[in-house]
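Duplicate of earlier report; Junctional adhesion molecule 3 input re-posted below.
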Amino acid sequence: DAARWRLRGSWLVLFCTSALATFHQLVGVTLRTTDKIVWANEFEPIELTCLIESISTNNPRIEWKKIKNGVPSYVYFQNKISGDLEHRAQLREPANILIFNTSRSDTAEYRCEVAAIDDQRDFDEILISLAVRVKPVVPRCSVPETVTVGTSTELRCLENEGFPAPLYRWFHNNDELPQDPKNSPKFANSSYSINPDTGGLKFRRVRKEDAGEYYCQAKNDAGHAQCPPQMMEVCDVDILGIFLKCFCAVVVFLCLAASICHSLRRGCFHKKGHNENNYNWPAQSDGVDYGDADEGHFRHKSSFII
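Output:
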């Protein structure tokens, strides 16, 4: 009986193996990957997996293509690495691509293609999306040097190299400013607000306690960077300066008014009336009397000479 059971088991194993081989031959080449969306840090290695689940062909044709902005280009073709990954990648069994040091230019879609001419289904492909994280560089920070108590002001922070786009944090005297000042007893009376997406730090009303060193930090999944600390001074309202400015303005106004009054008294601005003549009649000669216009003739004077 034991021998018969062993014989039946051997036939069962042989049958399953033959059925599985026939199934593979009928189904053909089939591919899969461990991750269809892959993230990698810049300058670090990453492997794109293209696993062959079933195939009957001994030497299938394997190709990798990079698709960026809708334009495909070869990565692995005719058994060698090509394109911008040349000397930076290699093909690993069964059909994986290992990139030694990724760069931001490697962000794209990659397509693994396997052709098996002896299989019933002789072709399969799989698409993998690769996104390379880029560490932020030192952000550009703008901190006002002097601010007056009670006024509003804004501190700015900007970084445009990191990918994905970094989030921003602000520090005051090496203490991180919480997003909501009311959540911290130390900053509960402050009137600031932080925009972590744009890097803006706004004060509605500056207090004396807001003076000190400020710096900003830009951070994403690849790392972080921060700008050097910058000092912001907070000054009291200059009452004496405001009084002196007002006093000078009043003095100038009084001087101008006195000058106008003095000019009016001297008649510098006097104008002649509309009925006054501003021209002279020509002088008449002593020797001729033209007489009245209704006499129709003129009279000779003793000085008239014919």
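Residues 272-306 have pLDDT under 50 and may be disordered.

Merging into the original ticket.
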